[in-house]
Structures are given as C-alpha cells and as structure tokens.
Amino acid sequence: MKILTCTQQKEADEYTIAHNSILSINLMEKAATLLTDAICKRWDKSHRIVIFAGPGNNGGDAVAVARMLHLKSYQVEVFLFNVTGKLSDDCLTNIRRLHECGFTSYHEVTSQFDAPKLTAHDIVIDGLFGSGLNKPLSGGFAAVVKYINASAAKVVSIDVPSGLMGEDNSYNIRQNIVQADITLSIGLPKLAFLFPENEELVGEWEVLDIGISQEYIENAETRYLITEEKDIRPLITPRHKFAHKGNYGHGLLITGSYGMGGAAVLSARACLRSGVGLLTIHTPVCNHTLLQTCVPEAMVEDDVHERFFAEPAELDNYQAVGIGCGLGQEEITAQAVIEQVRDCEIPLVLDADALNIFSTYRNNLSYIPKNTILTPHIGELERIIGRCSNSYERISKAKDLANSLQCYIVLKGAWTVVITPEGLCHFNPTGNPGMATGGSGDVLTGIITALLAQGYSEEEACKLGTYVHGLAGDIARNKVGEISLKAGDIIEALPEAWKSLTKN
Ligand SMILES: NC(=O)C1=CN([C@@H]2O[C@H](COP(=O)(O)OP(=O)(O)OC[C@H]3O[C@@H](n4cnc5c(N)ncnc54)[C@H](O)[C@@H]3O)[C@@H](O)[C@H]2O)[C@@H](O)CC1
Ligand SMILES: Nc1ncnc2c1ncn2[C@@H]1O[C@H](COP(=O)(O)OP(=O)(O)O)[C@@H](O)[C@H]1O
Ligand SMILES: [K+]
C-alpha cells in the first residue's frame, strides 16, 4: 500500500473528482458517511458529540458528520471557526444542509470563543484542519487545540490530528497539535502515523476507503509503502518434488562469544526454521558443546579463540553469511569482523555487534560490500549516523547511508522499515510490543540469512524476513501474551507463520 504526501492526497481527491465522475460534495458525503459509521460503532447516543470545524474541507467533513449524527438522534453541538470570513464551498454547502435539517446547536466563532465545558463522557470531533495545513497552528487555533487537549473528553480526529503535518514535523509546535484518541484517516494512511513520537497525537488509527481513484494511486510516485500480505505471498518460491538440501543453500552464521552463546542458538534455530538447506555456525570454542546440543541440525566450526571470534572464516562453500549476533566488541573481534566483511563476496547480513564495530571503526564503513543488509535498531543506527531528533530525520539519514553504501537497511522497531539503496522505504505491518525482548533481533538475522542462502534477492529477503518474523511474533502473542513472549517463542511460531503464508 502506498503512502502519499498530503499534497498528493489533495491531487488524488481532485483527480477522483475529475475522472471518476463524482462531485466534490459527494466525495465529502461519502467520507462523512464512513466517519459517522466509525463513530456510531464506538459510541452510543448517551454521549454528547461536540464538533470543532475549521474553514476548509476538513471542517466540511465535520459539519456533514454533525448532520448525520443529528439525524440519527445523537446530541450534537457544532463550533465552526470562521475567523477570516472565508469558508470552502463544500464547507458552506454542508453548513446550509445542517441548517436545513432543523439543527440549532450551531455556533460560528468569528472572534470570541466561549468554550463549552467538556466532560469525560463527551466525544470531541476534531475537524479543524486536515491535509490542507500549511504551517504550524498558532494564535486562536493553538488555544483551541490546548483546550481540547486539556479536556477529559475522548477525541476523534478527522483525517489527521489538527496541527500535525502528514510527513515532516521537525519544525512543528508539538503543544499546538491535537492529541487524538482515534484518528480516522481518509483515503490512505499518512507517513507521520508510523512514527513512535506521534503515537500520543494520532492514537489508534483507521483508514476509511472513500474510493480514491486507483489509477491516480497506481501512477503516484512515492518513496513510502506499507507491505501487505498480498505483496509477500508471491515472493515465496514453493519447493519442488525432487528438491534436495543442496538446492536451498548453505548458510553461515558467525555468532556468539563467551556469555552470549544464546544469541548464536537463537539465530541458528530461526535460520533452520526458515528453509535453509544447510547451516554452519562459526563460533568460539567455548560455545561448541552448547551449539551441538541445542542445534543438532547445524554444523559447528570452531574459531581459533576460546572465547571470542578472532579469525575470519573461509566463505567459499557458503551462499550467504550473517555476522554479529552476540559477538561482543573485543579488539580482536573487531579486526576479524572488518577483515571478514571486507573480503566477503557472498550475500551478507550485518547485525548487532558487527554494526557496533563499524560505528567504532567508522573509517572502515566503505569496506561494507554493495547490497549488504544492515539490521540495526534505532540505537545501533544512531551510533553510525549520529543522534536524530525525530523519526523523519532518522529515516532521511538512513536513506542517505543506504544510498552512499549502496546497501539495504532494516531499521527495526514497531513498523520496521526496509530501506533500499534507491531510497524506497517499505514499512512492515506485522509484529507487536511483546517482541521488545532480548534475542528477537537475533531471530530476524537468522531468518534473513536463511532467505539469502536460498537465493532470494536482498530486497525480497528483507521484506519477506521482516514480515514473517513479525507474523511469528503475532502468533506467539496469541499463545503466550505480550508480557511472557520471549525470542524462543517467535522461533516456535515460525512454522505456523510460514504455513499461513504458503497455504492457498
Ligand atoms: N473533496 C475533497 O477534496 C475531499 C476532502 N476531504 C477533506 O478535506 C481535507 C482537506 O481540505 P482542505 O484542502 O480544504 O484543507 P483543510 O481543511 O485542512 O484546511 C484548509 C484551510 O486552512 C488554512 N490553513 C492552513 N494552515 C493553516 C494554519 N496553520 N493556520 C490557519 N489556517 C490554516 C488554509 O489557508 C485553508 O483555508 C482533508 O483533510 C479531508 O478531511 C474529504 O472530505 C474527502 C474529499
Ligand atoms: N513494539 C514493537 N512492535 C513490533 N516489533 C517490535 C517491537 N519491539 C521490537 N520489535 C521487533 O523485535 C526485534 C528486536 O530486535 P533487537 O532490538 O535487535 O533485539 P535484540 O538485539 O535483543 O535481538 C526487531 O525485529 C523489532 O522490529
Ligand atoms: K483534523
């Protein structure tokens, strides 16, 4: 699913009106019908609905919703802010329609706003500004936002919380943005919804499909997409009857150190549950027995060192290598990692300590071969690119890094984003907060290494790997709940996740 900018959303509306023979006022009616349904589904008539409408089409939506709720016998009150004396045509039409159905609780605010008392039982509908916002809110509008935010009422924002920009909020004024409990987004989701710092502004969000022109969406250029199951399923290549283990690649995981053998176990088990033909684990001598016992399906190659990875492995017999889980950052390990990466000519995944080593020895970043997959969480990424003050800046800088290294970056978190060297950002929708637990990332490294070994392209391995990892996390959550979920549960759920993605 594409994510469009607010400017594109306006163009999409205009295109739909021009090419799908629908009048603008009727598109608004469709939006208002869906908004009203979503509100009625959540709250009954015992709640007073207090509607704040702005001068544009976001306000038009809100006034249309007021009429529909009134006709369903809800108790509704409308405050329309008309401070410049200029209202959009569709907003005016809806005000007229509201009056025509005998509605009397309508207040037009031109200068002085006598704010109603809001209680915890009231529902506020925020229709001040939507995708037409062109600068941060200030003055009277900022005061209304602060008053809404200070109230105990539940807040439903139409399209976006008023004051929030759809993409970049680096220069916005946070306290002048509505804090919604629910955002009902019209057409498509906005990029800003996927950023953790906006969670308390956007609340829970839902997309309402008002029938925006598919033709426009297909042709719209965007760098931001949300991966869907329908994008993932066709990527998976079925096994054929005469297949043998040699067809599915030999993967190598260079993982583990003294006291972090568990990371090696987790990544190896996940790799084996994701279809790799053969797996070897290169690990310090101290982990030999642990791995032979816990992962009998894998071969173990001992490093020369008792406790740490110290000497690069020979890569001739492998189709993919994953480096970094539980490696530690000893000086001897750092040198071995850099040398291993510099000379690597097969598909490569770098995680955890391998990334930390490159952030310490930054001069060696250029040794990372083209098309390598880097799987940092925010902390690991920022050790490389420097501290960022918000998600938009972080993603922009990550795109620059992906471009300069010609690598793939899997920036992990809720809404993990796969960034391609060309700067496309694929957001992953699966996964849950139960996965915020040590070892979850090691599982992902194992999965992606398995996919690379089987011959999936880097982009496919990143998208498919993050999707199935999150899906397994969701299956695990259903079994054990978010609090008890541990990394091993994700591995145990992988068979079900793979099965569900391959069944007809
Ligand atoms: N027919 C359509 O085009 C449809 C539009 N829809 C709704 O229309 C919205 C977009 O409507 P508009 O383009 O009219 O935009 P808005 O309603 O978001 O706001 C537009 C007005 O706000 C002013 N403005 C912008 N930033 C301001 C600021 N910081 N302080 C004070 N005033 C400011 C603009 O000058 C303009 O007058 C969407 O978010 C959606 O809710 C939906 O009804 C779907 C159909
Ligand atoms: N709130 C969340 N929602 C969805 N996925 C999450 C969430 N928190 C963590 N995850 C996933 O769990 C994994 C954690 O990886 P990482 O931070 O590297 O952990 P570790 O280093 O302990 O293995 C990532 O794939 C991340 O996307
Ligand atoms: K709004």
From TrEMBL:
Its cofactor is Mg(2+); K(+). Its EC number is 4.2.1.136, 5.1.99.6. Residues 228-501 form the YjeF C-terminal domain. Binds 1 potassium ion per subunit. Residues 9-218 form the YjeF N-terminal domain. AMP binds at residues 412-416, 441. K(+) binds at residues 58, 126, 162. (6S)-NADPHX binds at residues 57-61, 130-136, 159, 263, 326, 377, 442. The keyword Isomerase applies. InterPro entries: Carbohydrate_kinase_pred_CS, CARKD, Nnr, Ribokinase-like, YjeF_N_dom, YjeF_N_dom_sf. Keywords: ATP-binding, Isomerase, Lyase, Metal-binding, Multifunctional enzyme, NAD, NADP, Nucleotide-binding, Potassium. It holds the Pfam family YjeF_N. It catalyses: (6R)-NADHX = (6S)-NADHX; (6S)-NADPHX + ADP = AMP + phosphate + NADPH + H(+); (6R)-NADPHX = (6S)-NADPHX; (6S)-NADHX + ADP = AMP + phosphate + NADH + H(+). Homotetramer. Bifunctional enzyme that catalyzes the epimerization of the S- and R-forms of NAD(P)HX and the dehydration of the S-form of NAD(P)HX at the expense of ADP, which is converted to AMP. This allows the repair of both epimers of NAD(P)HX, a damaged form of NAD(P)H that is a result of enzymatic or heat-dependent hydration. Catalyzes the epimerization of the S- and R-forms of NAD(P)HX, a damaged form of NAD(P)H that is a result of enzymatic or heat-dependent hydration. This is a prerequisite for the S-specific NAD(P)H-hydrate dehydratase to allow the repair of both epimers of NAD(P)HX. This is Bifunctional NAD(P)H-hydrate repair enzyme. It comes from Phocaeicola faecium. The gene is nnrE.
